[in-house]
Amino acid sequence: MITLLAGENSFEINREIRRILDGFSGIGEKIDGSEIELRQLPDLLMGTSLFAEKRLVIIKNLSDNTAVWHDFADWLPKVSDDIHLVLVEPKPDKRTRTYKELLKVADVKNFAIWGERDVSKAEQWAVEEAKQLGLTLDKGLAGILVARTGIDQWRLYHSLEKLAVLDKVDKSVIEEIVDRNPSENIFQLFEIALKGQTEKLHNMIQVLEKTEDAYRSFGLLSSQAFQLATLAVTEKSSGEVAKDLGVHPFVLSKLSSYAKQQGKSGARNIIAAFADADEAMKTSTADPWLLIERALLRVNEL
């Protein structure tokens, strides 16, 4: 039997591997596919064990091993019936012959990473996972938790584990126990800029540049600017815009008051500030955090 676990959702893939291991009576063999040599394939795919009738062989990232992956399609028909072969591939090249052959013979399971449009899915998942941990979490609290952690199953699950040991969970407890995710820190930075708090802005950037990637942070800030601009030019409610953009409504609800203050003219100026910063990041050698600060200072002045 051959199983292909594909996709970048490492949480769900790890959980599926655990399910497979729990359902196997022996000890699974975990192999780093990037280090496999062609001469090892007969023992891995056809060899039997002196200690068990069945084998479970889990190979991760075999497609990173170009030489072996290229010829692996020829080995698929040779996999012993006594071996359950599990291939774990976050980003399999769908153009390759091996991948196309796997689609014909393997049980293929895809695990896509969650994106901004999966907010409702994340909230429902949090409610269900909380039950499994013995924690009662309603949809409102789940929304607060997801807004706090972001769309990251690992972070969300570990936060639920922290909360599950407490007698009572409410909004204040979540804010006290659960660490802010980087996106929320970036939102706070953008909000400080909108309020014109120059010194606080400078101090926060000095803190963030020690722990956060500048280019990722700029992307998040640009997203905030785009969302504010969208709110400023539309007649729709923040909830409707959140649904259209596939983002958490809580975030847009906090931006809506600033969007009204800025209006269409202010929103255009903010977008221009970020466009200039984006161009400078691509064409100059200036410190990216300095460029971010300059863009946010322009927001201050609007």
Report the CATH topology name of the largest domain: Zinc Finger, Delta Prime, domain 3
The domain tally reads 3
Instruction: Report the count of strand segments.
Output: 5
Helices and strands: which structural class? alpha/beta
Give me the Rg, rounded: 25 Å
Low-confidence runs of at least 5 consecutive residues: none
Helix and strand element order? EHEHEHEHEHHHHHHHHHH
Strand order of the largest sheet: 2-3-4-1-5
First-last Cα distance: 63 Å
Q: Label the CATH architecture of the largest domain.
A: Up-down Bundle
> Major sheet, described briefly?
5 strands, parallel
Shape: elongated
- Share in β-strands: 5-15%
Structure description:
The chain has 302 residues and is α/β, with parallel strands linked by helices. It has helices at residues 10-22, 41-45, 66-72, 97-105, 119-132, 139-149, 153-164, 171-177, 182-195, 198-208, 214-233, 238-245, 249-283, 288-301, and strands spanning 2-6, 29-32, 55-60, 83-89, 107-110. The longest helix is centred in the C-terminal third of the chain and has 35 residues, at 249-283. Strand 3 (55-60), helix 3 and strand 4 (83-89) form a beta-alpha-beta unit. Helix 9 packs across helix 14 and helix 13 (249-283) packs across helix 14. It has three domains: 2-110, Rossmann fold, CATH 3.40.50; 116-177, Helicase, Ruva Protein, domain 3 (Orthogonal Bundle), CATH 1.10.8; 182-301, Zinc Finger, Delta Prime, domain 3. It has a five-stranded parallel β-sheet, with helices on both faces. The mean pLDDT is 88.
